[in-house]
Specification:
The protein has 432 residues and is an alpha/beta fold. 30% of the residues lie in helices and 25% in strands. The chain contains 12 helices and 21 strands. Helix 4 links the parallel strand 6 and strand 7. The protein is globular. Bound molecules: ligand LLP.
Length: 432
C-alpha cells in the first residue's frame, strides 16, 4: 500500500511506522519529527552483507556512507550489523569515534580534507584515506611523516561513466570536482607518485558514479574500467592493488514511479564482472567495498509535520503550511525531489485533494512538495513525508533560527529519541 514496507494504517485510520501510531508520536515528541524504523535499517544492512556472502564468497564489506545520516545511533547500528563506515569530514569522524566505532573500518573521503582533519583522522586511526588530488596526497604523506606513521590510502578515480541521475549528484564523468581522471592519464601519474612516497601505502582504488541510480549497467561498466586500470598498474608498474571500492548510489523509492532493483541483483552482476576481469588481467580477485548511504537510511525514515494553515487561491493552488520545511528537508528546494506525502491523520481515506505543502521559512521556494495528492487536509492534521531518512537531517540548517527537529527510532511498537530536538538555547550557543 505504501512505498515503504514499515508503514501501515491502524484501526483509527492513522499512519503507523514500525508499529507506532504516527499521530501519537507527533503528540508525544512534537513536530516536526524525524522517525526512523530500526527493522528496515537493519534488514537493509543485512541484505548487503548477505549479498557479499552469496555472490562474492564474503570477500568484501559494505561501508555505510554516513553523510546520508550521521549520528551516533546509526554508527552503532552499522557496526552491529558488520558494516564499515564512509566519512567525509572531521565531524563525521568525531561522530564515529564518539559512537565507539572501530576506526580501522572507516574510510575518509572528501575533495578538500584540511590539514587539521588529516591530523585528526590519523590520531583517530582511521583505516583509509580516499585521496582526491595530488596536493592532498602530498599533505597526507607529510603529516603522516611528522607523526611517524604510514597512512593507508585509496585513490578516488573518475571512471568516465555517465550515470543517469540528477546533475548535482552525478560524479563519475570527467567534469566533476571529485577525484582523478583516467582518460587524461592523471590517475596513472598519481599512482606512480604515491609509490615514491614513504608515508602512504596504496592499498585500494575507489570510484563512485553518482547517487539515486536504478540502472545496474553503469555500475558494472565502472567496475570493469577499474579492473582494467588495476591491470594496467600491474603490467606497467608491477604493482598489484588488492582492494577495490565501488562507491554507493543505489536508488530508493520516493514515489511509486521509482523502481529500485533488489540490491542483491547489483552484487550478483558486479561480482561476475569483477571476477571475469580479474581473470582476464591475471589479477587476484580483489576485496570489494561498496558505500550505500541513501539505501540504508532513506526508506526507513519519515518526517511528521503539523498542519498550521491552509490557503486556497482560486484557480491557482492550495497551500498547506507545515511547521517545518526547507530547514529539515532542503531536497525539494535544491533538486525538486519528488516525495510521497500522506495525511497521517486520515491515512485510511482516499487521496483526493491536490495541495502544495509549504514550509515556514521566509522564502517562497521553501516548499516540501508541489501539487501532491493527499486525503483532505484540515488544520491540526499530521502530515507525513515518506523516505526522508537520508539527506534530510544531514542537510538540515538553522535558517530563520529554526531549531533542528528531534529524531525518534521506532522498533516493533516501541519508540525512543536518538537525536534530541534543538532548543533556543542551542540556537544561541555560539553567539558571543
Ligand atoms: N560514496 C561516495 C564517495 C559518495 O560521494 C556518496 C554520496 C556515497 C558513497 C553514498 O551515495 P548513496 O548510496 O547515498 O547514493 N545530497 C544528495 C546526495 C549526495 C550524495 C553524495 N555522495 C541528495 O540529497 O540526493
Amino acid at each position: 500500500m505504501f512505498v515503504n514496507d514499515c508503514l501501515n494504517v491502524n484501526e483509527k485510520g492513522h499512519l503507523t511506522i514500525g508499529g507506532c501510531d504516527t499521530v501519537d508520536l507527533a503528540k508525544k515528541y512534537g513536530t516536526p519529527l524525524y522517525v526512523l524504523d530500526e527493522t528496515t535499517i537493519r534488514e537493509t544492512c543485512r541484505s548487503y552483507v548477505n549479498s557479499f556472502k552469496k555472490f562474492y564468497d564474503g570477500n568484501g564489506m559494505p561501508l555505510y556512507a554516513s553523510k546520508a545520516l550521521s549520528c551516533k545511533e546509526m554508527c552503532r547500528i552499522a557496526n552491529e550489523e558488520g558494516l564499515g563506515l564512509d566519512v567525509v569530514s572531521g565531524g563525521e569522524i568525531y561522530t564515529a569515534v564518539q559512537a565507539g566505532f572501530p576506526m580501522e573500518k572507516v574510510h575518509f573521503h572528501g575533495n578538500n580534507k584540511t590539514a587539521d582533519e588529516i591530523r585528526f583522522a590519523l590520531d583517530s586511526k582511521v583505516g583509509k584515506f580516499v585521496v582526491d588530488n595530488l596536493y592532498e596526497l602530498e599533505l597526507i604523506n607529510q603529516i603522516a611523516e611528522e607523526k611517524g606513521v604510514v597512512a593507508n590510502i585509496s585513490f578516488r578515480i573518475k571512471p568516465g561513466v555517465d550515470a543517469h541521475t540528477h546533475n548535482f549528484i552525478r560524479t563519475g564523468q570527467i567534469d566533476s570536482k571529485f577525484g582523478f581522471a583516467l582518460e587524461t592519464g592523471e590517475a596513472f601519474e598519481a599512482v606512480k607518485k604515491a609509490l615514491t612516497y614513504n608515508n602512504v601505502a596504496l592499498k585500494e582504488l575507489h570510484c563512485h558514479i553518482g547517487s539515486q541510480i536504478f540502472d545496474i549497467d553503469p555500475f558494472v561498466t565502472a567496475a570493469e574500467i577499474m579492473l582494467d586500470f588495476m591491470g594496467k598498474i600491474k603490467d606497467e608498474l608491477n604493482v598489484v592493488i588488492t582492494e577495490l571500492n565501488l562507491g554507493g548510489g543505489f536508488g530508493i523509492m520516493y514515489t511509486e514511479e521509482d523502481e529500485p532493483v533488489p540490491y542483491e541483483n547489483y552484487m550478483e552482476k558486479v561480482s561476475e564482472a569483477v571476477k571475469a576481469k580479474a581473470k582476464e588481467h591475471n589479477l587476484p580477485v580483489p576485496y570489494i567495498y561498496i558505500e550505500p548511504g541513501r539505501s540504508i537510511a532513506g526508506e526507513a525514515g519519515i518526517t511528521l509535520y503539523t498542519v498550521g494553515g491552509k490557503k486556497n487561491i482560486p484557480d491557482v493552488r492550495t497551500y498547506v503550511s507545515v511547521d517545518g520545511g526547507m530547514t529539515d528537508n532542503i531536497r525539494y528546494a535544491l533538486y525538486q525531489s519528488a516525495y510521497t506525502v500522506v495525511n497521517a491523520s486520515k491515512a485510511d481515506k482516499e487521496a483526493t485533494e491536490i495541495v502544495t505543502v509549504a514550509g515556514k521559512c521566509c522564502e517562497s521556494g521553501d516548499l516540501v512538495q508541489e501539487h501532491t495528492k493527499v486525503a483532505e487536509v484540515e488544520v491540526g492534521d499530521t502530515l507525513a513525508v515518506l523516505s526522508t531518512g537520508a539527506y534530510n537531517y544531514s542537510m538540515a540548517s538553522n535558517y530563520n533560527r529554526i531549531p533542528r527537529p528531534a529524531m525518534v527510532m521506532v522498533n516493533n511498537g516501541e519508540s525512543r529519541v536518538i537525536i534530541k530536538r534543538e532548543s533556543y538555547e542551542d540556537i544561541v550557543r555560539n553567539d558571543i
